[in-house]
């Protein structure tokens, strides 16, 4: 956009210089006309002078019309640029708020994951403790079962001896 403004500024300066040259040429033609009046027919030179000025005036009028169109186009481009900047600003704001929302959500999920990891670690520790306790209880029960089986076998032996002794008596 700045390049367009610079280009338009350069065009205006160029046209201004052209206008000055035209004015200078007009003055020079006028001076020539005065000089040539002494030597040549006055009407021919005057017609040429007027024709040149009319042409130059028409050229200047055309250039001014072009400049007007360029200025209108520039204003339209400024409006479009403003719309684009506004839309870009809204998009950036939307993107930032979405990023913030995602950061907050990620933070919450990370905290939740951390809490679940703590819970899992606690459960694993309790499970490990319960497993040891269960193993110890199984060992105790195995020992008690073995002791009971020994006692049962001793009881049968004693019962059988007792029965045998009763028969003998």
Automatic annotation (TrEMBL):
Swiss-Prot/TrEMBL keywords: Coiled coil, Cytoplasm
Compartment(s) of residence: Cytoplasm
Tagged with keyword Transport: no
Main location: cytoplasm
Biological process according to GO: centriole replication; de novo centriole assembly involved in multi-ciliated epithelial cell differentiation
Annotated coiled-coil segments of the chain: 57-119
A GO CC term assigned to this protein in UniProt: cytoplasm
Protein name, per record: DEUP1 protein
Gene: Deup1
